[in-house]
Amino acid sequence: ELRKEIVLPSKSIDELTRIEAQYGDVIDKEIHNANIRGKIERIIAIKYFKKKVWHEVVKHLERANKVIKLGYEDYYRLAVAYANLGWNEADTKKKQKHFTYARTYYEKSLSLNPGYAKSIYGLSLLEFFIFGEKKKAISRLSAVIDNKNIRIQPLLLGFVLPLLRCCILLASISLLTIIM
Questions:
Q1: Rg, Å, the chain Cα set
Q2: Which of 15, 34, 148, 151 lies at a CB distance of 3.0 to 4.6 Å from 11, suitable for a disulfide?
Q3: Sign of CA dihedral 23, 25, 27, 32
Q4: CA dihedral 17, 6, 41, 102 (to 10 degrees)
Q5: Which H/E stretch holds residue 40?
């Protein structure tokens, strides 16, 4: 009954929260099959990702990561969740910690699928705007555009090209400021 109730794709966040509150201890204590427990955590995390409840995405994917092998899209979700937590954090130390985790998970996603454009884009944003690695970000984005083997969704390409232009412009302005 528990597994059937959780995996149904039509469950809302409120229903998932209720299920988690009601069965959380059962998931932790009674489901000894780590594979099933990990898959349940992953399914819950994906639901929260779609609703942009970032702290819950992190909680559930980190739990899943302890017991099952995650894929590149799962690491991408973790990276996005940590990056969003970082953008919204007021405390500087926590902000930096979230961004560092985001970077780690973008890199993990890319280690499993080097051509995953969403992870390339997200990592490039962090490199350019957070870590100050402008040349690295521009190089990474240029490689995506130049590489014919990487399929970029048209919507994502609409973000990558303007970002690349913005990065080049900002890098040029920074260079001009240094020269002047």
A1: 19
A2: 15
A3: negative
A4: -60
A5: helix 34-51
CA distance linking residue 167 with residue 169, whole number of Å? 5
State which of 40-54, 91-105, 162-176 shows the largest mean pLDDT.
91-105
Read off the DSSP letter of residue 12: -
pLDDT reported for residue 90: 93
Structure tokens at 33: 């099959």
89: three-class secondary structure by DSSP: coil
Q: How many helices (H) and strands (E) does the chain have?
A: 9, 0
**pLDDT tens sequence across 1-53:** 444 444 444 456 666 666 666 666 655 555 557 788 888 889 989 999 999 99
Torsion angle defined by CA atoms of residues 21, 23, 28 and 31, in that order, rounded to the nearest 10 degrees = -160
Report the amino acid identity of residue 5: E
Instruction: Name the phi and psi angles at 32, rounded to 5.
Output: -80, -20
Conformation bin of residue 36: beta by default, left when phi > 0, alpha when psi is -120 to 50: alpha
Residue position matching structure tokens 């894929």: 71
